[in-house]
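Escalated from tier 1: nicotinamide-adenine-dinucleotide holo job.
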Amino acid sequence: MALYVTPEQKEAGQKDFADAVVSRRGFLKGFLAAAGAVGVVTPAAYFGYKAWEGRPVKAGLIGAGDEGGVLVGEHPKEYLEFIAYSDIRPYNKDRIFKGEPAPSPRKGFNAIYGHDADKKILWYEDYKKLLENQDIEAVVIALPLHLHAPVAIDAMKAGKHVLCEKLMAWNISQCKKMIQVAQDTNRVLTIGHQRHYSLLYAHADELLRADREAKDEDRVIGDIRHIRALWHRNNSWPAPDADPTKPALAADVPQPKIRDGWYPPIYEMDFEKLARDIKKYGYKNMQELVRWRLYDRTGGGLMAELGSHQLDACSIFLRSVHPLAVQGVGGKFYYNDDEQGGRYEPGRQADDAVFVTFEFPGPDYYKKDADGKPTSEVKHKEDIVVVTYSSVNTNSFEKYGECVMGSHGTLVVEEEKDIMLFPAKNPNKKAGDKPTGSSVATAGGGKAAVESSGTSGAQAPVAVPGTSAGPVSRGYTEEMAHFAHCVRMHQRAEKANDKEAMQRWRVGDDAPRCHGKVAMADAIIALTSNIAMKEQRRIVFDPKWFDPTLIDAVPDKDLKAKDAEDKVISL
Ligand SMILES: NC(=O)c1ccc[n+]([C@@H]2O[C@H](COP(=O)([O-])OP(=O)(O)OC[C@H]3O[C@@H](n4cnc5c(N)ncnc54)[C@H](O)[C@@H]3O)[C@@H](O)[C@H]2O)c1
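Tier 2 regenerated the structure:
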């Protein structure tokens, strides 16, 4: 992400970020006090949950594929215990127990619950049967996109609290319905945009907030006019030779010619079991089940799979605002239908590259009320922040991350694990001037290039994730721990018939950070971008779309976009 940055500059950028956070501890004292420590801030203290004294929340996993495996590997079992799961593919049913060798995060049930895990954890072919199990209090859903809404709604109606993977749903009508059902059934509903639970992003957000409050000469980021976000991968290499550790490939379907994670192999063991009556599970054929990301009916393309995470982060960086407009270009520029060619992916509908530009409101775009909160009235219509996003499949230079470009400095978050600050060189500053805020000279020799002004004094260091050695949590564990905590607190409030508290744990200040309304905004951004690219137009976001109570105000309907090939499946 950080183009042309040497290891020394990277190290200096990380140090500058940590110093800038530490020097603003006055602003950050809320969570430091919560941690009850002068040094390390724990995720539990930061996000407001604690280890449960009683038993963990009993959960069922619905969808035990790639992401289900990650969630199993990362789940905090003192908070959330899986007692059942549902999946239909024999290969994934086996893998969810055995896991994969490190460094894969898919540790498998056996590694976590012991080698007799398969005797303790129940399997249901039909997820509706899992929902009938009265011991299950909550479900974690990691299914293909088109199934998120129907299954989450069934689960809430069956009395389960729900953590569903992103994107929230296949369209915005479904998102609104999910929120409505959560309200009607009084269940906790949260969506798996894990950046809401990454300390790395939390610290970046804290720094940006402190920077907005600071005097101009003390600002290290300054006036943000542009954010560049990207996710670049190279899926153009030839497919690997047959792997003896993997099952045999099915002979009756096209198999990958290139290494594309969205076009995985179809194994004979899955084909044999499922191909004959695949329609019973709501799929047209085996390709739709295994390669669901490629088709409009089952997936949402690059913006749903990757862009939604990063636009979620950009919205947070820009004070949790919604974008004003979007336009873009996307297409199948690389993969094709030519059976002879190396890029053959028959029937693929998803774009292989997207380039999208968003206009976000700057800090003075809206008029403010007496409390300083933005109103819906426009004050300065030129006060725009431009966010560009690209995702490509044929070049992995820079990989993925977000680059926040301010007048006083640049904040870079790289691959969800590194964070750097590169303050701009102030040409007016003379040698010997007292440094204000942070000032970077040239980084080199592993020496910190930043000096922080005034406030840091002799305080103890704060451990800032992504700026020191050791693995950085991407937020899955914290997301599941907080979800379980909210479920328990909600149950307690329900027992006491405390309606105000129930509401608070579901959608209020104490609720999961990515509850329905937050996640719906991410879905609106991703899915409206798809319409803008498909119809080659600039689309202005209607504030009504973001209101979950206005059931009929949805972009696909308002914009009269062409329907996908079929109606979305409802089981
Ligand atoms: N938060 C993240 O960073 C992240 C990363 C990757 C994927 N995801 C999301 O996780 C979800 C799953 O993605 P994935 O990569 O694991 O896909 P996958 O295809 O590997 O897994 C999906 C699983 O669902 C099962 N399944 C399908 N239909 C079913 C049904 N009717 N009943 C029971 N099981 C059924 C499949 O057999 C498969 O095992 C997607 O929504 C994806 O966007 C999130």
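The chain is about 35% helix and 15% strand.
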